[in-house]
Amino acid sequence: MSGEDAPAQQQNAEEQKQQETKTPAESPKTESKPDPPPTSASTEAAATAAAAADTPAPAAEKAPEEDTFTYRALVLTGYGGYDKVKLQVKKGKPALKSGEVMVRVKMCGLNFADLMARQGLYDRLPSPPVTPGMESSGVIEAVGEEVTDRKVGDKVLVLNRSGMWQEVVVVASTHTFLMPEGMSFEEAAALPVNYITAYMMLFDFGHLRPNQSVLVHMAAGGVGIAATQLCKTVNDVTVFGTASASKHEVISQGGVTHPIDYRTRDYVEEVRKISPKGLDIVLDPLGGSDTHKGYNLLKPMGKLISYGAANMLAGQKKNLFAVAKTWYQQFSVHTLSLIQGNRSVCGFHLGYLDSETELIDQAMTAVMDLYRQGKVKPRIDSTYHLEQVGDAMRRMQERNNIGKIILTTEPMKEEEKKEEAKKDEEKKDDKKKDDKKKDDKKKEDKKKDEAKKEEKKDEKKKEEAKKDDKKAEEKKEEVKKEEN
Amino acid sequence: MSGEDAPAQQQNAEEQKQQETKTPAESPKTESKPDPPPTSASTEAAATAAAAADTPAPAAEKAPEEDTFTYRALVLTGYGGYDKVKLQVKKGKPALKSGEVMVRVKMCGLNFADLMARQGLYDRLPSPPVTPGMESSGVIEAVGEEVTDRKVGDKVLVLNRSGMWQEVVVVASTHTFLMPEGMSFEEAAALPVNYITAYMMLFDFGHLRPNQSVLVHMAAGGVGIAATQLCKTVNDVTVFGTASASKHEVISQGGVTHPIDYRTRDYVEEVRKISPKGLDIVLDPLGGSDTHKGYNLLKPMGKLISYGAANMLAGQKKNLFAVAKTWYQQFSVHTLSLIQGNRSVCGFHLGYLDSETELIDQAMTAVMDLYRQGKVKPRIDSTYHLEQVGDAMRRMQERNNIGKIILTTEPMKEEEKKEEAKKDEEKKDDKKKDDKKKDDKKKEDKKKDEAKKEEKKDEKKKEEAKKDDKKAEEKKEEVKKEEN
Description:
The structure is a homodimer of 484-residue chains. By secondary structure, chain A is α/β, with parallel strands linked by helices. Chain A has helices at 8-22, 40-48, 65-68, 112-118, 185-190, 192-205, 222-231, 248-254, 267-274, 289-296, 320-329, 335-341, 357-372, 389-397, 414-483, and strands at residues 70-76, 85-91, 100-109, 135-143, 155-159, 168-172, 176-178, 213-216, 238-242, 258-260, 279-284, 298-306, 332-334, 344-347, 380-385, 404-408. In chain A, helix 14 links the parallel strand 15 (380-385) and strand 16. In chain A, helix 6 (192-205) crosses helix 7 and helix 6 (192-205) crosses helix 13. Chain A is globular. Chain A binds chain B through residues 200, 203-205, 207, 287, 291, 300-301, 303, 306-309, 330-349, 352-353, 356, 359, and chain B through 200, 203-205, 207, 287, 291, 300-301, 303, 306-309, 330-349, 352-353, 356, 359.
């Protein structure tokens, strides 16, 4: 914690400078074709974006395109709460190396890893300042040398280690995948991380087959919905899905055979009631004690697939207690236990697979085929503007979503902005009220504490007095004994 | 160790009585068909079998068939060396419960678990006295009630938790599998444990696919050869196989792409030279430090499958040091490590799957299909008579086999027996010589030890003298300080 929340404004300005020097214009342009001018939308946004205040004003004299080219980007400015992700304006056209493409982003996907990253709990995101985001969709705007399988105008979905939450991204063309006919940009941004994760877990590690049973935690989340749909592509698979009761109708319609309200029920008991022998596959995004429970629910030849530690997330900022507890309870297993149980324990995280182009390609091809056959279809929970990224993250972290949360690069309309501003004001007011309440409560608590302390002191004094009495007596006894 | 090797002869007689009372004739006969009389072979053997000396002579008066029915059985009489498995004669026709069949056994398979069991290292074998053995082949001699899919005369292979090393076995019919056309009894006894183990590991836990790479330890052993053949049923799979150099030609012909002599080379280095990124699947029957090495050789999405602790076996009897070392070095893994590496660790042992009829059936069906297609074929290393079980176990434990070691229930011919007896005599002589040598060496060692001890004592005395001097000086210093 400590200095992380310190003077964010000054920090930003400096960080942004660093950011800019990080991407020097090595090879200014690989395309001779003129680039479209920055959309009015993005310049408009530039003027109003929160962080834009720190950005030096564009040079008045006519500058080369590399300098006039600007685009909006979300930037994680330091680890902490929702407000650590700021909307900034980046200047200068990014250079394209051989094999790379530039994509004008339409939509971006939100993932649990992004929430972890903001708290400093995800080591695959470079240090701040950095643009988060592992997936997006958009249109190819320029292609670098030696790129033969993509052309300007191609609609693509993009999967990358980070940097997807901005209007313009430059990535290796191997990180882009052509969007199938009829797929919306929202769907395209919702698909890569969740569906590849669910696919590789269920079919590579899990080797899911007909008549098997699967436990899907957070069944209304992005991976949860993807996993449920993929389970349904195999005959007679029973899906146990945990989610709060209000989401049960939707996840049942989506294919969950037995929805379990983990808030009011013990999911282990619920599973055992229906499937006394246990489960073939447990997908575990929670970590900590839930991994132990999942392991103990496995049938012979069962597979536990751990793919996160969502239990570490408690509150906006890094909660050291939750982290320590989850870490302390983290599951570790001995091969002899695995042998005697005929069990498998697997770990999966797409973020650590970013260089495995072939594996990703295989999974993506399979998922796209299923999409074309109508067997899988991302469910969009909600779409937020870049300016609203804080609200988007809050919705995900508080687990209010059913399906994927999307960010759109489409600029907010003026009236929307005004509404946002109002809401912000209200929030501030609420916060003030809250703070006042908190202050009042603190004062009260303090008074109570002090009263209690006084009481305790009194008690302590009494006890000590008692002890002294006792000691005195003991001494007397000793003296007696010695005398005897 | 301790009392385990104690008076084996007396123990046997008592144990055998217990054994007999364990199988009461609940339902004497479920078949009205007369049973074949005990073969002359088995009565002949009964007269000469080592352990038969303790068996009470058959009653002279005419007894019911249940009593005249005898058959030879190998019995583990206590934990320890090769001689703990004795050939005995069992009396009385075993009763058949509903759903069971009686099989006249032709051949039995030897497995690593049998070696572990003899040393008391395998908890799936009931306590001695007990007949070991997990697999055999033979002909159905009687069927119990409600058995509809087997009939007298069917040639079958049998897979069971224990009790397969005897001439007659009674098992649930679900533990028998019809032998395909053209399969020999040797092959049938060699197939169940090794091929089901290799199949389930490679295709269920391993999810083996084209172009992948697999490390097979003990590639000339039963599971090793089965695994190699199964790898070859998938396109372009690279097999790394460890075995001593003398076996390389055979295993190469069998499909091992890169044989590695683990006695003279570091297999980790050898694998890395050829496959710098590592391996997709590691089959690990060794345990201990080799599991760590295997884990570190995994590629992303790689699977380590641990299926034994052969490193615990060192010498004939339980070697506490080897057991402790293997146990101490036994691999344990944390889910966070699995997540960051995108890895899977699995444990497999068929002995713990004996109630999973459906899983076993699926694997067996698949293996039988491959056999019929000529894609797999057990390789028989050697066949021993029941009387030679000690030699058979020794051959396996000393890793001199290439392929499966089989026990046949066919009785030994008279001349073979004489030869065996001669060999035994020679062995005893050798043992005496060895013992004398050992004694001499012990005496010498004792002398050396004593001399060393004397030296040490002298040194210790000198050191203590030095220490005393030092203390004296320190005291002087202290006194000085105090004086100052």
